[in-house]
Every structure is written in structure tokens, then in C-alpha cells.
Design brief:
Rossmann fold; 9 strands
């Protein structure tokens, strides 16, 4: 029986590319998004290549929406083989200049959504004694960066959540856990981040503005001088995700490019794929 995969956030970028790539490689894909009216690009790809992709509405910040989507899949297939937690949103603004609503939003979308979707699929994967949960995090889930503290905080939370989950569900229930950690992605994600976070057209104002201008100049310099591109396409990241899904012994965490690997080196060099630490934790606690 072919494996199925539930993917969140498939209207564009990594999610859309992952849905197409998984379908091209024999998976039955349940491609979900908050606003199903934004599925036109994916619908065109489905029609063009006759892909086995089913579109479903799913808002990762709404537990009822998550439950309804999962019940639909279980009713059709009786199982969920892979959950790809892809939905997320960029956010770059100082803590001082962020509203309570914005702080709650960036946490809901990037962290709580992962927890709620995982919580909803776990009973079925536990019962079937198999499954895989892959979460798209970020190098920002390992390395804190200027003006990204709220986004990084949410992604750090995902990394800790997934790592802790891996210490016991993998052996007990044969549920594999992985974090995929891209660097910059040249997709709608970046445009959305800018549109969501700018204050009067700027990310920072007042005394923060000179620091922000220096930060932006440094970003531009790195992008110009880097022999290995900082920004990947959504497809390049999706290809790494697919390899993780096809791996019998997938890593706990994996960066998606040489640039991302180098960027996180000081955090990861002792245990690049995270498996040594998880193994040590199992020995200590279990």
C-alpha cells in the first residue's frame, strides 16, 4: 500500500513544491492550507501532471480545523504515514515594537501549530505502530539572529519539542522524528515576512534604526560575497525533505545547504544530526 503524507502550508513555496515532489515519488498527498482559495497554483500542477494530491482546508492555529482534516484522511485511508509540519511565517521586528497580538501570532503559527498537528496525528501513528513526523524549522531554530528574536524563539521551541518527542516515541511506537533546517528561502515566505513585520515601511525605528541599517547592509554583503548562495529555492528544500522521508533511519535534524551547515557549525559540530544527544538522553532517562 502506498504511503500517504499530510502537508501543511501548501499554497506556495516549500509546501507547494513538497506536495508536488512527494506525489511524483509515489505518495498520496493531502495538501492543506488555511485558505483553500489560494490553491490555484497547486491545482494547475495537479491537472498538468495528473498528480495524486487531495486538497484540504487546514488552519494550524485552529484545533477544530486540524481535527476535521485528519478525520477526513483517516476516513479515506485509515492511516497517516507522514506528517510534514511546513506551515510557518517569518517575522522580523524588535521586541519593543511588537504588539501583543503579533507576539501571540508568530508563536501560534510557528510553534503551537506544530504541536497541535502533531498532537492530532500521534494517536493514529501510535495505534498503527509506525509513522514519521517532519517539521520544517530553520537555522533560526538553532542560532538567534538580530531582529528575529520572536521568530527564533518560536523555532527554538519547535526544535526542543521535536527533540524531546524523539527521545521516547521513536523506540516505543516506531514514529520517526526529524527537523529540517533551511537557511534563507527565496519564496513567498520572504515577501510575506516583509509585509507582515514592517512598521511604516521599516522593520525598526528610533534608536533601533541605525542597528537595523547595519544589519541589512551585512545581509547584503554576505549575499554578494557568498560563494554558496544564502537563498535556496523551495524545490531545493523540498528535495531534502523527501530524502528524509525516504530514509529508514532519518536524522533528528538536518540543514538543507552548505551555507546553513556552516552558519550553524558552532551549535552542531559535536552532533550534526542530533542522534547522539537523543541516544544519550534515552540512556539517562529510560
Amino acid at each position: 500500500m502506498n504511503k500517504n503524507v499530510l502537508i501543511t502550508g501548501t499554497s506556495s513555496g516549500v509546501g507547494l513544491e513538497s506536495a508536488v515532489l512527494f506525489a511524483q515519488n509515489g505518495y498520496k498527498v493531502y495538501a492543506t492550507m488555511r485558505d483553500i482559495n489560494k490553491a490555484q497554483a497547486l491545482k494547475e500542477k495537479i491537472k498538468k501532471d495528473n498528480l495524486n494530491i487531495i486538497l484540504l482546508p487546514l488552519d494550524v492555529t485552529d484545533k477544530q480545523s486540524i481535527q476535521t482534516a485528519i478525520e477526513t484522511i483517516i476516513e479515506k485511508d485509515g492511516k497517516i504515514d507522514v506528517l510534514l509540519n511546513n506551515a510557518g511565517a517569518g517575522f522580523a521586528k524588535t521586541t519593543e515594537q511588537s504588539s501583543e497580538e503579533e507576539i501571540r501570532w508568530v508563536t501560534e503559527v510557528n510553534y503551537h501549530g506544530v504541536v497541535f498537528c502533531t498532537q492530532a496525528v500521534l494517536p493514529f501513528m501510535r495505534k498503527q505502530k509506525s509513522g514519521q513526523i517532519i517539521s520544517v524549522t530553520s537555522v533560526g531554530g538553532l542560532v538567534g539572529q538580530p531582529f528575529n528574536e520572536l521568530y527564533c524563539g518560536a523555532k527554538f521551541a519547535v526544535e526542543g519539542y521535536m527533540e524531546a518527542l524523539a527521545t521516547y516515541v521513536s523506540d516505543a511506537f516506531n514514529i520517526k522524528i526529524s527537523c529540517v533546517e533551511p537557511g534563507g528561502i527565496s519564496t513567498e515566505f520572504m515577501k510575506s515576512a516583509i509585509g507582515k513585520t514592517a512598521v511604516d515601511g521599516q522593520f525598526a525605528t528610533g534608536e533601533y534604526l541605525p542597528i537595523f541599517e547595519k544589519y541589512m547592509a551585512g545581509n547584503q554583503k554576505r549575499a554578494n560575497e557568498s560563494g554558496e548562495s544564502v537563498y535556496q529555492t523551495g524545490l531545493e528544500v523540498a528535495e531534502v525533505i523527501l530524502k528524509v522521508a525516504q530514509n529508514e533511519n532519518p536524522p533528528i535534524r538536518i540543514r538543507t545547504s552548505k551555507w546553513a551547515e556552516d552558519f550553524c557549525r558552532l551549535k552542531t559540530q559535536a552532533d550534526p544530526d542530533g542522534t547522539k544527544l537523543v541516544s544519550e538522553i534515552k540512556k539517562s532517562f529510560l
